[in-house]
Amino acid sequence: MFSHVLRSLMRSLSSVFSPVAAGIFAAGSIGVFLAFVLFLGRIDKGSNPNYFIIALIALMFWAWAFGFMARCGVLRRHLPVLALPAAFIAMEMINFPFCTKLQFYCRIYHYVFYGLILLGVDFVIAQCLPKNRLGTLLNRAELLLVGFLYWILSLIVVNVFLNGSGIDNDAMIAISQTDATEGSYYFFHENHGLALLLIGAAIALAIGGIVYCLWRLRPPALEGKRRLAVTGILLPVLPLLLLGIVSNQFAYFMPLTWKTLMVSQDYRMQKKRYAEKRIAYMEYVKRELDKEQKDTGSDGLFAVVIGESASRRYMQCYGYHLPTTPFQQSLLEQPGMFLFRDAYACHVQTVKVLSLMLTNRNQYDGQKLGLTNLVSVIDLLAHYGYRTAWLSNQNMYTQDSWTTPLVETADVRVSLKDYGKRKSKTFYDLDLLKEADKLTPAKREVVFVHLWGNHLPYQSTYPPDFQAPAEFSAYDKSMLYNDYVLKELFDFFSKRNLKMMMYIPDHADGVSVGKGHDPRPQGYVHEMVEIPFWVYLAPDYAAAHPELVAKLKTAEQRVITNDLIFNLLLGIMKIDNRFTESRYSPLSDDYLLTRDNALTLWRRRHVFNDTGEIGKEGE
């Protein structure tokens, strides 16, 4: 009885399944797979036998589906869908060239699994639905979806060949933090945007033609074999699903493309979690601070000016041959001026710099970096009785901005760019002076000024009528305007009981090589972390604290990364607290940073003796 049923089933399957075609397809697929495994084995010595076997099983199921398509005579109509897993895997190999064997195995599993589901849907729509208006509409929609997927894959690959780097986590963070003006400049001037658009249009036309031809195809009728064919094609989906669940494929091993697309969402969730936990955490901070003395800190006005994309290579006060920083050059003659010549950025993305610069977290404390377990300098200053103001010419209130939760408790918050978007008006850094003039003087106050500085596109950072020598490049001119803004701010604050003014940019740009700031291995150059940094003490404050002057004279000769500004600022303000260990302050005798251990890119690289990436970011 059983043998009779089995023979009957085999005869039925033979009418819709070709074992020869499936075997040939399996042999070819597995051969290519093993070749890639051997290739990856040169740099990855791991074995991961379980995931290796799962990948092989997925390939055999893929060949099983090919056998059904070949025997049913519908291969031409469904070949684009059948080939989608291979296309996605090839795209990931190009877009993410650094791949482990485990990642490769998981790519095969995921793309074959979802490819088989899509293939089953494709088969049902094309072969099983009646040829009425609804069936025709679903057929067109499904073919357009497949065409769109191929178009996206093609654009990603073309982008890699045009720009030498793919769309990865760093690129997604940069995209999520930009606005329309900045984004269009980067797209057209830094990323061959016009060429990408033209090639994309040509690819879209080609894919559109193929989709039209597929829609016009009249595949052979399968009559009573349809249900058997659909069942056979979808049969591997359930065992593949069970294999994925058992091996934690869906929990831990998503393809890199999917993880990259989720980067912005991950950062939004971090910001949301920070905001949710913030009230409870600040109660903890308050309890801790209540144990300390209340009268720590100095009276007066302290100004922290945060620059943007400023490279010290193009500053006269650092030896540049053009007079781009006349004001800062004149400050060098003041006894209270301290110019740090070995200052470096902890990252080349603004949000990642500020999340360390404005908090007690840094690259050297061994903690995981991100928006968790932080103490914001603004919250700390508020506890000691300082009125705080955050005056910004950058976007503060974008949905992905990490800056927002860190500065939202400032007594005064201004974002000219966000205001300008609503009013269709362009603001320049000097307009921040009007906002500073609105501040009511206080016995204790700290003003943070976040400049647009020297951000790309450089010609957008200064007014059209701003004058500069003819030999100045756009970046030189932006540096000259930045110097002018610093002078005006300095003069204004000096009339308001200024005790200290600090200028510290987030990062620099790769100006000499025609690049902006890019943390990816293909785009990073050391110039992107070479920032200027100076501290000015007012004469009365310097006279009242001669020991601070002596410490700053020593500190300006030391190496510093700008994630340690939190510690330095509080030291200058004479604020004693339990959140700033002395070894993280350049003012301390036991300061830990040297040329041997200075880090950047959130611990991914050494500042000096850089031989490439040394670890995962933030870990």
Summary tags:
11 strands; alpha/beta; 2 domains; 619 residues; elongated; Alkaline Phosphatase, subunit A; two-stranded parallel ribbon; 7-stranded mixed sheet
Describe this entry's structure for a reader.
This protein has 25 helices and eleven strands. It has 619 residues and is α/β, with parallel strands linked by helices. It has two domains: 2-261, no CATH class; 299-464 and 471-606, Alkaline Phosphatase, subunit A. The protein has a seven-stranded mixed sheet, sandwiched between helices. It has a two-stranded parallel sheet with strand order 3-9. Helix 19 (403-407) links the parallel strand 4 and strand 5 (412-415). Helix 2 packs antiparallel against helix 3 and helix 6 packs antiparallel against helix 11. The radius of gyration is 30 Å and the shape is elongated. It starts with a helix and ends in a 13-residue tail after the last strand. Mean pLDDT is 84; it is low at 4-10.
Show the helix and strand layout.
Blueprint: H1 2-14, H2 19-40, H3 49-72, H4 75-82, H5 84-95, H6 101-128, H7 133-163, H8 169-176, H9 180-190, H10 193-216, H11 226-234, H12 237-246, H13 249-252, H14 256-261, H15 263-290, E1 300-306, H16 326-331, E2 337-339, E3 343-344, H17 350-357, H18 377-383, E4 387-392, H19 403-407, E5 412-415, H20 416-423, H21 432-437, E6 444-450, H22 474-494, E7 498-503, E8 534-537, H23 539-544, H24 546-555, E9 560-561, H25 565-572, E10 599-600, E11 605-606
Parallel strand pairs: 1-6, 1-7, 3-9, 4-5, 4-6
Antiparallel strand pairs: 2-8, 7-8, 10-11
